[in-house]
Amino acid sequence: QVQLVESGGGLVQAGDSLRLSCAASGRTFSNYMMAWFRQAPGKEREFVSGISRSGGTTDYSDPVKGRFTVSRDNAKNMVYLQMSSLKPEDTAVYYCAAVRRLYALVAVTTSEYDYWGQGTQVTVSS
User: Mapped to the 3 state alphabet, what secondary structure does 15-75 carry?
Assistant: First the structure.
């Protein structure tokens, strides 16, 4: 089992920055591919960004590419999502997810991930 706890959400204005954190516990963190998903009211949960076990491979959805940066610290069992130039359409609950995967290609669908955090709300006002 892997336990994931997100933090760092909040209410910000358009154009602001925010950093989300996800703390992992329970298993060897470096064995797990990590990702961020988000879900806005009335919409399906969607992929935002992912990072391979070593951190050497990352992937981003088109809406956030160039504005968000994912990173991880395997020594601290942490994964981060640095969000810049936030827009009202970024408003959602953001979830951290994990899957034990040996290869580096980032998984981008919810069904591929085995462990999820409880989510943290990000609200961007215009």
Answer: CCCEEEEEEEECCCHHHEEEEEEEECCCCCCEEEEEECCCCCCEEECHHHCCCEEEEEECC
Tokens of 49: 């960004």
Per residue in 22-73, pLDDT (tens digit) is 999 987 999 999 999 999 999 999 999 999 999 999 999 999 999 999 999 9
Tokens of 61: 């959805």
Report whether 80 contacts 96 (CB < 8 A). Answer: no
Pairing of strands 32-39, 92-100: antiparallel
Closest CA to 43 of 92, 102, 80, 7: 92
